[in-house]
Amino acid sequence: MTTQTKAPPHSSSALELPLRRFTVAEYHAMAEAGILTEDDRVELLDGVIVNMAPIGSRHLGCVNAYVRAFTEAVGRRAIVQVQSPIRLDDGTEPQPDLVLLQERADFYASGHAGPQDVLLVIEVADSSVDYDRDEKLPRCRDTGRYRDAGWAFIP
Predict the structure, then answer these.
(1) Is 126 exposed, middle or buried (0-12, 13-18, 19+ CB in 10 A)?
(2) I want to staple 126 with a disulfide (CB 3.0 to 4.6 A). Which of 18, 51, 59, 115 is the partner?
(3) Confidence band, pLDDT 50/70/90 cuts, at residue 12
């Protein structure tokens, strides 16, 4: 019996097919239907569901240090949001490591923060610095007021 050990090469026509992009509403519907679960480390960027790197202990420690520093520094003047989504447009909902948001009485319980709410975005890019800098940032920063927010990448 013969066994194939290598995947066949992709034909050039397969590479030219357009992607099926999703809206934020469709992305949320997938989560509600159980297609995506809380265990799936994904985010929606420009309509594409993108896997996120696992959170290692070095990454976690760095994020925790920034959470403490920013929480103490801003007090009640802003909300420190950690590894939670921001809806930037109908096809983009990234989950940055830390975001400073404008103060809001309901703490964003009535809906995810949008570009107009963002003051600062921090990505702790331990293993994903190239992707975060070259792919994620350009997709996100050109969205409305979000482009005016400060960005910091911590390698």
Answers:
(1) buried
(2) 59
(3) low
**Alpha-carbon span 7 to 127, nearest angstrom:** 27
**Selection from 13-22, 113-122, 146-155 with the highest mean pLDDT:** 113-122
Token couple for 53? 């790197």
20: its two tokens: 């099926």
Q: What are phi and psi of 101, to 5 degrees?
A: -115, 155
Q: Is 151 in contact with 115 (CB distance < 8 Å)? A: no
Strand partners, 43: 50
Strands 98-102 and 78-82, by their bridges, are antiparallel
Rounded distance, CA 43 to CA 28, Å? Answer: 11
CA gap 63, 65 in Å, rounded: 5
pLDDT of res. 127: 76
Structure tokens at 108: 């964003």
The span from the CA of 91 to the CA of 96, in Å, is 16
